[in-house]
Amino acid sequence: MAAYCTKADLVRRFGALELAQLTDDTTGQVVDDIEVAAVCATASSLVDAFLATRFALPLLTVPDLVKGWTEDIARYRLLKDNAGPDSSARRNYDEAMKLLRDVSRGRAGLPDALGIGADQLPSDDVEVDAPDAVFTAELFEYMP
Question: What is the DSSP track for 69-132?
Fold first, then answer.
């Protein structure tokens, strides 16, 4: 499984200084590449857990929404206990999780995922293929 976010994505979105402060316990000046890779992999696995209910994995094309949600989840996980309930990191994480739940339940879609349109997503319809009925209306016509 490829991660939906990378160190470069997190630096672009949140800045190298914030990333260093979140991953370097000594000086707060150097980004810990191993920790960032691990948190990106964990966040990507979480996203996959929700997407697996509606999409074949791995995604052939990764929509920007999925990348953004994964980045928000990774940042929140890097913050650990330092993300207060009113912080932007907490709000972004909560929103990402809400939207992932909606996608997994079929309430929202990802039309760019896999390069397919929303009309090709799995439906909730049930299709049955069975032999012809043994007891038909015609059979009962001949009964006294």
Answer: HHHHHHHHHHHGGG--TTSHHHHHHHHHHHHHHHHHTTSS--TTGGG--GGGS--S------PP
47: tokens are 């996203």
Q: Which residue in this structure is represented by tokens 């490829």? A: 2
The model carries a pTM of: 0.76
Two tokens, residue 133: 């009925």
Give the C-alpha separation, 46 to 140, whole Å.
57
- pLDDT tens, residue by residue, 9-19: 999 999 999 99
Tokens in use for 13? 């979105």
Structural contact between residues 18 and 82, judged by C-beta atoms closer than 8 angstroms: no
Greatest CA separation for the chain: 94
Between CA 3 and CA 81 the distance in angstroms is 24
Sign for the pseudo-dihedral over CA of 36, 37, 38, 41? positive
